[in-house]
Amino acid sequence: MRDALRAAHRRSLVNPITPHEPPSLPLGRGSRESACAPRHSIRTTAWVRLEAAAASARGKRRLVNEDWHSTLDSRTLFVVADGVGGGAMAARASRELVRELHASLDHRHVDESAIRDALLRADREVGRSIASETRASGAATVALCAGCGRLLSKWLIAWVGDCRVYRLSTATDQPAELLTVDDTYRQLREMPPPGGSSDDPARMVGNGAVLEPNVGQAVLGRGEMLLICSDGVHKHLGPGDLGRVMRESAPLARRCRRLVALARARGSSDDATVLVVHPEPRRARLLGLAVGAFAFAALVVALMTTLMVMQ
Questions:
Q1: CB-based contact 273:54 (threshold 8 Å)
Q2: Domain locations along the chain
Q3: How do residues 194-238 score in pLDDT, each as one tens digit?
Q4: CA–CA dist 25, 236 (Å, integer)
Q5: What's this model's pTM, rounded to 2 decimal places?
Q6: Confidence grade of residue 62 (pLDDT, cut at 50, 70, 90)
Q7: Domain 2-284 is of which CATH architecture?
Q8: What is the DSSP letter of 304?
Q9: Which strand (E) or helix (H) includes residue 25?
Q10: The dihedral sign for the CA sequence 186, 192, 196, 202
């Protein structure tokens, strides 16, 4: 087993930015799908074009990447989870958390209540899964966004812990706008455990410490997108950095990789993950609907005028 871990470690140094954990490690259920997960996707409906991309990298002092994210094959749900370092089976906690949320919310009507219920259910299921392997506790922090409506201009956002969601615009020079508030001991005015830091997450999924999941809303205008990231990114990159990189003309997946690499250059040694969602209304479709509506209205007016003349 040690030889396998050393070999995986050497491979990860050659290509440090990877979708998830080295696929040669025995990760259990769901590992094959996520290890081969696409990091870029485009989905088009009659109303909207939805582009999503992600990049994730293992921390320098870790044998596996304990972050996990959606495989980007969902229509409107996107999740980033960060296994709590030092906890039991952190990589398994984050992986199963993402899977449980998709199992609860994919292909269903999603509202704030459904998201809260899904997070609380995931807390129980992840805790039960880890308890089947070890008596030690293990958990993960998480952030997600779920699109609503045909145009995907409204999104529900939710988080537990210190994963974050930002709103960005490609059309202005404004920095990224933070939409979440970290559940840290400092923010919640709680005392951290012995040896802990006030900036550590006080809420997480998998060990019964969720209490009340945070759920909010975000409305996206033209050219705006949502960015979800783990603390391995946001502790080293400010809102200005996020906005500047996202306004570059490179493909979306490359911009995500650029953010992870920039966090590394700024000193991040933790696992680092970025996932970006960019919905764009299909202008031709909307224009056609507007023309059709105008023509219908004109026809109604003409008919009414004709009837009035005949009277």
A1: yes
A2: 2-284
A3: 999 999 999 999 999 898 999 999 999 999 999 999 999 999 999
A4: 29
A5: 0.81
A6: confident
A7: 4-Layer Sandwich (3.60)
A8: H
A9: none
A10: negative
